[in-house]
Amino acid sequence: MDEKNTPLLEMKNIKKDFFGNQVLTDINLTLKEGEVIGLVGENGAGKSTLMKILFGADVIRETGGYAGEIRINGEKADFRSPFDAIASGIGMVHQEFSLIPGFTATENILLNRESKKKNIISEIFSERMDTLDRPEMEQRAMEAIEKMGVKIESKMVISDMPVGHKQFTEIARELSKDQLKLLILDEPTAVLTEKEAEALLESIRGMAKRGIAVIFITHRLKEILSVCDRVAVMRDGCLIQNVPAKETDEVQITKWMVGRNVDVSAGAGKEEAKEKEEGEVILSIDRLWVDMPGETVRDVSLDVIKGEILGIGGLAGQGKLGIPNGIMGLYQAGGTVTFEGKEIPLNDPRKCLDSSFAFVSEDRRGVGLLLDESLEWNIAFPAMQIQNKFLKNYLGGLIKWRDEKAIQEVTQKYIGELAIKCTGSQQKARELSGGNQQKVCLAKAFALEPRLLFVSEPTRGIDVGAKALVLQALKQFNREKGVTVVMVSSELEELRATCDRIAIVSGGRIAQILPASTPSEEFGALMVSQVI
Amino acid sequence: MTFMERLKEAVESFGLPRLIITGFLILLLIAAPIVGADLPTQISNIINRFSWNGILVLAMVPMVHSGCGLNFGLPLGIISGLLGATISIEMGFTGGLSFVMAILIATPFALIFGGLYGWLLNKIKGGEMMIATYVGFSSVSLMCMMWLLLPYHSPNMVWGMAGKGLRTTISLEGYYLEVLSKFLQINIGNLSIPTGAILFFAVLAFGIWAFLHTKTGTAMTAVGSNPTFAKAAGINVDKIRLISVIMSTWLAAIGILVYEQGFGFIQLYMAPFYMALPAVSAILIGGASVNKATIMNVIIGTILFQGIVTMTPTVMNNMIHMDMSEVIRIIASNGMILYALTRKTEGSK
After folding, report:
1. Distance from CA of B211 to the nearest CA of A (A)
2. Does ipTM top 0.85?
3. What tens digit of pLDDT does each residue of B240-284 get?
4. Domain over A264-356+450-532 is classified CATH 3.40.50.300
5. At what angle do helices B295-320 and B325-342 cross, to 10 degrees?
6. Where are the domains of chain A?
7. Interfacial residues of B (vs A; Cβ cutoff 8 Å)
């Protein structure tokens, strides 16, 4: 084959599953020298997993490796660790900084690749004792920084730098590697100001001119269109589009991202939704802030109407998860929350539960379940503790004895209703599959017979069949018992299929609330409207 | 399933260390008559020692359930018990009444000490067992001074020459020596069963079992199993942990009094120091883990541990005329703790 036509990177039929949960299906991607490709997709679409495979991350090997093959310059590559990937010319800039705060930019850029001079001691012992050649290091660092086309002070200590400069230092570190052929940038502009982002885009163009291929991951579609040669769109673990950037626009990319491969019945409840919009407000949130790491809520005001299913959507990290967690008192929060005309004190889980709220956490294993206890305990526990259900009173209520029979009955009831696959009500929660664990979490909330139910990411990490069942159960609970449901999910289609109205959170604020029947593209545009 | 697989499963569910120790004890019981030791006497010994130590082992249960880990701070509770015992004697109570008074006087001490100890443990979640160990160490050292300084005057307890400061061992003759053991005692030849002491243990064990079936007890287990889950269910996690620590401390106080009535002496100064490890290893041998323990674990563990401790000296001495008991006790108790701490798995039934 002609040297010129061999692509720099070829990924063929890449497949990956985590414990039977398919996250990547038949990914084919090629990249030529000096080409810039923009990789977009919703959270959980498989972008990070794909990049981890390419970079030889340990987590991939530990979870059983991947299928398919990766070729670099036409040669099959099998990276056993990130070191192998670096050696074959792949560089990666992560979302989180990996810099040493007390070192200067130069020291960070050339860490473990310093220029060295021999001295007497190192002649005798080993080259580990060489002295550093500071002037040459400085020069090499400056070269790398110049390649980016931005100015950062090479002698400045990292901890004194603004975030943007830290990001540039990371990129300079990759650029200073002579063998660098392919650079992966994972949301590099997320922390940058507009001006800095523009400078970064300029430096990407510069890199491309020098023949370095770039994979650019971002949520900011404008940047992709302005800098990339091609756009690759991922959804649900599939690479669904791979087109030249010139031939597409923001609206179309958004449409591809949110997709519509799920059969949507959103239109069905339209009339009903209209009616509900004018209904009585059951929960009113006013200027809520929540300090949840990675999911900061800045200023959310929101009215929930009695009897509806309200969806809260948005990209990861924008604060949608912070809303229920903050209201339920699991993270520090402020603002006013009024339920049925009464103000609910924040930062006190007990008060919320006493007001007949229930919460199904997104952190199933961490918050949602007693993994080492039986299903009976898991389902009955909150209802027992909060509402004194499943207890027998002796000595005029002095002794509250656990009523094993009632507990077993209620567990059996929910095992039947929600079709929980288990060997019996005594089985340990740990032994169930993700989908069935989620059903147990729902049963736990249902047993509380709440008037308002918060559900956070109810379908995260569970298979398609269980997804449908979980959503069905939620809908049924809402319709039959008249319980108001607030459902937070990163999967827009799921929200559209389940909810009456959907609020999109962006940058810690509500971007807008729209009926579920609104086209996906509009929601997509809202999601990225105020991204910080 | 083949026989081997079934055997493997059975071993796994019973726990390998527990199996080895059971096997060793059975071996000792078989060897005893062969080497000329009297079997009924040996069995009486085991039952007696079980009745002395059972409650101290039971004291582990509440803290394990609430997720505070093994109570290496047991000496703190024991000190409360010792205060109760010495003050009861100082005040001149004798016979059975001195035992009842000792319990009554020890209780407020246990509640106060347990409360402070629990408050401390709530401050350092995640490192409970290490802090507990040091709480035990330091409280013993502090009391070493206090036993000398506190104004005790009873001639049965203070040093003869100086007339002040408590002696290291105080005989319970005339006070509550064997008040429980002698109650309804059954004697058949060389076999004697301290019914009263066993009943007393049974009452307390039933109490703990019952407590764990109540609303608060259920919350305690849930706090130990997953504190975040409990918090999300509206439980005041710190309060529940505090209750468990107070319960553990109080049980330790009662436990040492029961131990003394059987053993016949109050041991002061460094003695409480050596009480925690045997209790910890007994419950672990019984099949408990760092975060799961049942009453059955307590009973089985105490019998096995005390069985080894009493049987080895007699059998070994008769066999090889050398006292190996201390060595084996140390290997069994410390080895068991080490084993349990390295693997935080669920306990067996």
Report:
1. 8
2. no
3. 999 999 999 999 999 999 999 988 899 988 888 888 888 988 888
4. yes
5. 150
6. 3-89+179-258, 264-356+450-532, 366-448
7. 210, 213-219, 221-222, 225-226, 228-229, 231-236, 291-292, 346
